[in-house]
Amino acid sequence: MKHIGIIGAGISGLTTAKAFLQKGHQVTVLEKSDGLGGVWHKSRSYAGVTTQTTRDEYAFSDFPMPKHYPLWPTGEQVQAYLKNYAIHFGIMQHIRFGMTVKTMYYDGFNWIVNLEGGESISFAYVVICTGTFHEPHVPEIPGRNSYTDAGGILLHSSNLSAADQLAGKDVVVVGFAKSATDIATTAADVSKSCTLIYRRAQWKVPRYFGNSINMKYLLFSRFSEAFFNARKKTALQQVLHSVGKPFVWLHWRMLELLLKKQFGLKKCNMLPTHRIEDQISCSLGVEPVDFYSKIATGKIRGICTEIERFEGRDVVLKNGQVIRPDVVVFGTGFKQRLPFLQVQYQEMITTASGMYSLYRNILHPDLPQMGFVGFNSSLFTTLTSEVAAHWLAATVSGELILPPVEDMLRDMRLMERWRCEERPIAAEFSGLCVAPFNYQHLDELMKDLGLRTRASKNFIYEFFKPINPKDYKKMLAGKSTII
User: Fold this and answer.
1) pLDDT, mean of residues 53-72
2) pLDDT in tens, 353-384
3) Order of strands, edge to edge, in the sheet holding 26-31?
4) Cβ–Cβ under 8 Å, residues 204 and 285
5) 349 near 367, Cβ under 8 Å?
6) Does residue 479 register a pLDDT over 60?
7) What DSSP letter does each residue of 226-269 carry, written as one string?
8) Could you tell me where the beta strands, DSSP code E, fall in 236-376?
């Protein structure tokens, strides 16, 4: 038995705690806020937030979401689900809330974690579960202080706790990712006016393609994944991305045509200029209900530009326009930082371009007694984090023997090169997104563990059916083997 320290009590921290507890280890989870949930905690969830993935797919393998939840649960429902998960598996008593990690160092035997307030704890192994939504990112724009000094309100999306904060006000929302378009859609119904400022239009997908087919059937299957040019190709992918290239090209153009028609993108003047297959990753947004219709009717005014500077209450745009909003909300994402980790270790696990470089997105072979869960974000992060937690717990417990260090480092270098040269969008979220190769990632981890990668022997069924976390409950219960 080892004392395992887990930093963060979000999705990844909770499933990691469960995996290590089930292996018989002593576990302490350090969470800086007053409650669990991570990005789903009420203090970080913006008004009107829902999941992008449907209810049954955004769940752990052995703890389904309640059937009375809507298909796209709210932030409050997700946090309640995570709390019930922690209670059900006996994790709550292992979480220490209000614990901010200031620094940590390896003394040659253990990690010494120093907390705000002066307390230090020694751990035999540390798992960092701060994930991709660690620190809100607000761009440094000249004159920001002059705007707030003049009475303007600047917010990050994570600080927007209630729609009332926008009621009756002239609102500007910055960005085009999920949080920005969600907030703009909410603001359109309660604000005096709503303007969305974005650098470029991005592709979004509907909850129902053609208003009839649930998105999971077209996005969350091995079939859909086969149309991407993966680094490690299956036999089918080798065919599709050689002699089958015209078919692949037609597949994507037909999908774009469907989205153009369904959303009326030309009418909205929000037609992306890039190919959809070059964008699809963890940032692929699901259209907030009625977002494009509100753009088309003018309830949301979209301006494709950037903020150049603030001059008192005036917001000067790069296209020359000057607007005077009461509130500016930045839906500009998060930074993936680890400020508590010594610089030498930060430099070890990141590249010169700022991307994380980890074997299987879980550990670095030269970083002793430390792992990362949730650094393999996907379109169904609950499941990818859960399988990663099982993988890491098996490694620490000695059930999974890793390849030689030089082999792991070679694989990491190949992945880094592929991200930079073949798929630039893979650099998104500092390289922590495994999508759209969700299945490929899961298959690698399951094979490492010596476990099945498919729930049945029906190849055709397995190829076309959408992901089902419940399948992995039985598969993860199998016996691991040494690789």
Assistant:
1) 95
2) 889 999 999 999 999 999 999 999 998 999 99
3) 95-97, 26-31, 3-7, 125-128, 370-372
4) yes
5) yes
6) no
7) TTS--SS--HHHHHHTTTTHHHHHHHHHHHHHHHHHHHTHHHHT
8) 285-286, 301-304, 307-311, 314-317, 322-323, 327-330, 334-335, 370-372
Burial 310-322 (b: 16+ CB within 10 A, else e): beebbbbbeeeee
With 0-12 CB in 10 A as exposed, 13-18 as middle and 19+ as buried, what is 109?
A: exposed
- What pLDDT digit, counting tens, does each position of 433-453 carry? 999 999 999 999 999 999 999
Domains and CATH numbers, the chain: 3-134+336-476 (3.50.50.60), 137-332 (3.50.50.60)
Give the model's pLDDT for residue 478: 76
Output the 3-class SS for 376-393: CECCCHHHHHHHHHHHHH
Give bridge partners of residue 446 from the DSSP assignment: none
Question: What is the distance between the alpha carbons of residues 108 and 121, in angstroms, rounded to a whole number?
Answer: 15
Residues 6+ apart with CB under 8 A from 199: 176, 304, 305, 306
Cβ partners under 8 Å of residue 328, min gap 6: 147, 152, 153, 154, 155, 171, 172, 173, 174, 307, 315
pLDDT at 353: 82
Q: Give Cα 157 to chain centroid, integer Å.
A: 15
- Name the residue among 406, 376, 409, 411 with its Cα closest to residue 390: 376
Q: How far is CA 131 from CA 378, 417, 421, in A?
A: 11, 23, 25
Neighbours of 432 (CB within 10 A): 22
Residue where the block lists tokens 């990818």: 384
Between CA 289 and CA 206 the distance in angstroms is 8
Answer yes or no: are the C-beta atoms of 279 and 426 closer than 8 Å. no
Q: How much is the pTM? A: 0.93
Contact yes or no for 195/325 (Cβ under 8 A): yes
Strand arrangement, sheet containing 170-174: 153-156, 327-330, 170-174, 193-198, 301-304
What are φ and ψ of residue 315, in 5° steps? -110, 115
Distance CA 334, CA 283 (A): 12
